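To illustrate the input format used throughout this study, we show a single complete record. The first block contains the structure-token representation of the backbone; no residue identities are included at this stage. The design step must infer an amino acid for every position from geometry alone.
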């Protein structure tokens, strides 16, 4: 007797990698995606991009230094206001420190904008290169793939992917390691200026913040993925229905197509509400 049911079904395959679907494979896919994009930060034989990356990192280091030292100007201004020695200058020193603090804050904003200006071409060059590779890959696929004719969903996936490239490169270069370095500098300054317990408390709070953020973000990922899938499905049905306008009109299937499109929009609405609600929970916890 033949057994029936999910136990003997073949494992679902990833249509891109051909590997078994599942959480471990999905996480490894994220790392492979990041590893495939990182070479665009240091491309071969393109010194213009390399110089821009170096300049952006240099500006980032300067900005982090200003960020760490700026509160000391504010501290010196407060200390000067409480000074009892008239030779220190009752007005001049506090005003100078407040102005220095304001200049430091302005400099932080200016350096951030300068960093983005240097990195703009790097990110857009990566978008251009990966977009061209994707376009060529689509033309290299079999006729069977293109006969399915999911033009709308495919175009939406490509659009989301190209928009995410610049953000992913900026996040990997400007957020992870620089933030950890800034945290180490702040903890070192707190330990040197005050007491090591202040540094431990600060480091512990930040580490808990990081853990909370990653845990909730991992939980939210499924909602965001579901929203993207529903968005892709809705766009697929809309575009493909319009591409087959003559067939739809010939058989009088306008209401049927509208109902299918509405079902996709309803699924997107439900997933979008979950995504927004979970984001509100994440922001509240942070």
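Output of the design step:
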């Amino acid at each position: 007797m033949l057994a029936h049911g999910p136990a003997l079904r073949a494992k679902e395959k990833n249509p891109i990698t051909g590997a078994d679907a599942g959480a471990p494979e999905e996480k490894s896919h994220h790392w492979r995606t990041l590893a495939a994009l990182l070479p665009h930060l240091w491309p071969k034989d393109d010194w213009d991009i390399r110089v821009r990356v170096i300049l952006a990192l240099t500006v980032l280091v300067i900005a982090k230094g200003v960020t760490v030292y700026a509160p000391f100007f504010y501290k010196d201004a407060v200390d000067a206001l409480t000074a009892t020695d008239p030779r220190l200058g009752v007005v001049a020193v506090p005003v100078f420190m407040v102005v220095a603090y304001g200049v430091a804050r302005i400099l932080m904003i200016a350096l951030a904008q300068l960093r983005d200006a240097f990195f703009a071409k790097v990110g857009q060059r990566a978008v251009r290169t990966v977009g061209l590779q994707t376009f060529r890959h689509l033309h290299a696929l079999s006729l069977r793939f293109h006969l399915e004719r999911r033009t709308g969903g495919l175009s939406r996936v490509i659009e989301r992917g190209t928009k995410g490239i610049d953000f992913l490169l900026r996040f990997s270069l400007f957020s992870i390691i620089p933030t950890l370095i800034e945290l180490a500098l702040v903890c070192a300054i707190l330990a040197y200026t005050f007491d090591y317990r202040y540094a431990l408390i600060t480091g512990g709070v930040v580490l808990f913040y990081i853990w909370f953020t990653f845990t909730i973000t991992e939980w939210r990922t499924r909602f965001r993925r579901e929203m993207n899938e529903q968005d892709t499905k809705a766009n697929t049905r809309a575009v493909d229905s319009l591409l087959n306008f003559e067939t739809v009109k010939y058989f009088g299937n306008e209401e049927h197509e509208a109902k299918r499109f509405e079902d996709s929009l309803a699924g997107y609405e439900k997933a979008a509400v979950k995504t927004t609600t979970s984001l509100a929970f994440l922001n509240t916890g942070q």
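Structural context for interpreting the output: The chain has a mean pLDDT of 83. DSSP finds nine helices and no strands in the chain.
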